[in-house]
Write a structure and sequence with these properties.
Shape: elongated
Number of strands: 0
Radius of gyration: 13 Å
Strand content: under 5%
Largest sheet: none
Helix content: over 70%
Distance between the termini: 18 Å
Number of domains: 1
Structural class: mainly alpha
């Protein structure tokens, strides 16, 4: 599974995709994007450690 698939899975499974599309959820969306970035960064770090 590549990073794009992982990030899309996080968005989709977490239900963030629909919420981020909703204009009323923009403020809470920023917090969710920050969380997604944290998860993706951890995924990248884990991938680097696992492949080296």
């Amino acid at each position: 599974m590549n990073l794009f698939d992982s990030a899309y899975g996080i968005l989709h499974i977490g239900g963030y995709y629909r919420e981020l599309k909703d204009k009323k959820a923009i403020d809470s969306g920023f917090e969710k994007v920050e969380r997604i970035i944290e998860v993706v960064e951890k995924h990248i770090m884990n991938s680097k450690f696992n492949h080296n």
